[in-house]
Design brief:
Length: 294
């Protein structure tokens, strides 16, 4: 199956869409939190702006590569069939040059105006997502999102290292939280889009092992997530406000996971997916509020 060709010329909106701005914004939120938690006071303004800009550009480059690699299977899925590459509004060469351009600019910013450690960690995250996950793991195993989830969990460490130039245990705790969050987050969407994934040939867990097995995995990983989410309190990184917030948000996530398991409605999988995004955003906001107010 080849991508659809279109006589429409690409607009700036097509290139913007290929950057997956909503995904990148959530990543930058967690990167920002990593920066803020790395220091007792305020992050230097240049690092705050340039660090997040560089990370965002490299992440956006990875998103564009995802569009490039998946352009043929994107045509087969309702969620992605209208993407610029799938519809031929952006040509392969255009997309490739765009990905290279924003990726190089992002890396240059991190190398020359932030620090090399942050730059190389960001590059590693880019390679993990764009090539190891999208190019190989996504099509090789139903555990793709578990194995490949590490690259998407890196932003807090990227933000932390941008400020300190180091890798520290508290930063790795934040990475582990997102690593545990990724499977139940994505598998809920995979259940909702199971037929489309089956049609595209991507071996997502609901396709290869069925919905029941996937729902059990979601409940198990949600429990792992709840346990991991309290690590910042016990490590001394955060206080009681964060602990209560993490437990309340975790309870909400578990309720949705159990509803999906035992009393699913046609919209439950998508509602669980949407709540998971809200969960992660509020959890990291709670970390910052606790950090500065208590």
């Amino acid at each position: 199956m080849t991508e659809i060709t279109s006589s429409q010329s690409a607009s700036w909106r097509d290139f913007y869409e290929m950057c997956k701005p909503r995904v990148v914004m959530l990543m930058i939120l967690t990167s920002l939190v990593g920066m803020l938690l790395a220091v007792p006071g305020m992050v230097p303004l240049d690092v705050l702006i340039l660090g997040n800009l560089g990370i965002a550009l490299v992440a956006a480059s990875g998103a564009v590569v995802n569009h490039l690699i998946d352009r043929k299977i994107d045509v087969l899925m309702k969620r992605t069939h209208n993407r610029p590459m799938a519809q031929g509004r952006v040509e392969l060469l255009q997309g490739t040059l765009f990905a290279i351009a924003i990726g190089v600019v992002g890396m240059a910013i991190l190398l020359f105006w932030v620090n090399p450690l942050c730059a190389w960690l960001t590059l590693g995250s880019f390679i993990g997502y764009a090539f190891i996950y999208t190019g190989y793991l996504k099509h090789a195993t139903p555990q793709n999102i578990v194995i490949g989830g590490l690259s998407g969990a890196m932003p807090p460490l990227l933000g932390w290292s941008a400020v300190t130039g180091t890798i520290e245990p508290d930063a790795l705790i934040l990475v582990f939280i997102i690593f545990a969050w990724t499977p139940p987050h994505f598998w809920a969407l995979a259940i909702h889009r199971k037929d489309e994934y089956a049609k595209s040939g991507v071996p997502m867990l609901p396709v290869t092992h069925g919905e029941r097995v996937t729902k059990i995995h979601i409940v198990v990983y949600t429990a792992i997530l709840i346990v991991s989410s309290v690590f910042p309190y016990f490590s001394g990184m955060s206080g009681i406000l964060y602990l209560l917030s993490a437990l309340a948000l975790g309870a909400g996530f578990m309720v949705w996971s159990l509803l999906l398991m035992f009393k699913p409605k046609p919209t439950t999988a998508m509602d669980t997916f949407k709540f998971s995004i809200l969960y992660l955003a509020l959890l990291f906001v709670a970390l910052v509020v606790d950090h500065y107010l208590f």
